[in-house]
Design brief:
The protein is α+β, with helices and mostly antiparallel strands. It has 4 helices and 7 strands, in the order ββαβββββααα. It is extended and about 115 Å long.
Length: about 220
């Protein structure tokens, strides 16, 4: 869309945007359906009269009229905003309440940068099939709530006290009086003294035979 201009009137910024092409009533309904994403506390107006809807999808079945508008709290500007579509006319009017001086003092470029992305997305939705809003089943919501509650309880609960470590069995080859780690080792006993080997006795000297003979 193209911003034709904007001005302040009675505490509101009034602006007009020109559509790229002329659109049908059904395409306007698709634009209003898509505009739900940019509003909170939504009210729908048909020929300047508010209408009650059971769901967002009911917008797509509103009978043809002269104009249709959507109003509520803008999730982008954080101020009340109104968009009005006119049947058989190729422009829309957009109004934003001036809740602060920053909005009131916006020039053409600043106002266009804030609002133009919104109206461009809405115009594109006129040429696309409406995307149904996600609907959660009641049972699914209850299950998710229950899981979140369990997770919260689990995170707030104190962790269990771990059991003491099991005593490792002692090796039978390890002496019971082994020194504790870090203590000084005991002084080893001196080796037993070996007994001196026996001194062998000298062998008797052999006797010499006398060279004298008796006649």
């Amino acid at each position: 869309m193209h911003l034709e201009g904007h001005h302040e009137d009675g505490g509101w910024l009034l602006s007009t945007f020109t559509l790229t092409n002329r659109v049908s009533w059904e395409m306007m309904l698709q634009a209003v359906y898509a505009a739900f994403e940019y509003f909170a506390d939504i009210t729908i107006f048909v020929d300047d009269q508010s209408v009650k809807l059971e769901s967002r999808a009911d917008v797509l079945s509103i009978p043809e009229a002269r104009s249709i508008g959507i109003a509520g709290e803008s999730v982008v500007v954080k101020e009340p905003m109104i968009i009005i579509f006119y049947n058989q006319v190729h422009f829309i009017n957009l109004r934003i309440r001036c809740g602060n001086d920053d909005l009131r003092d916006l020039d053409y470029e600043g106002f266009n940068k804030i609002v133009c992305p919104i109206v461009d997305a809405i115009e594109l939705a006129m040429y696309q099939e409406p995307v149904p809003a996600p609907v959660k089943d009641d049972a699914t919501e209850e299950t998710e709530d229950g899981e979140e509650e369990k997770a919260s309880e689990a995170s707030s609960a104190e962790p269990p006290i771990p059991p003491p470590p099991a005593t490792e069995p002692q090796d039978s080859a390890t002496p019971t009086d082994a020194p504790a780690p870090g203590s000084e080792p005991p002084i080893p006993l001196p080796p037993p003294e070996a007994s001196a080997p026996p001194i062998p006795s000298p062998a008797p000297a052999p006797r010499k035979r006398s060279e004298f003979r008796c006649n």
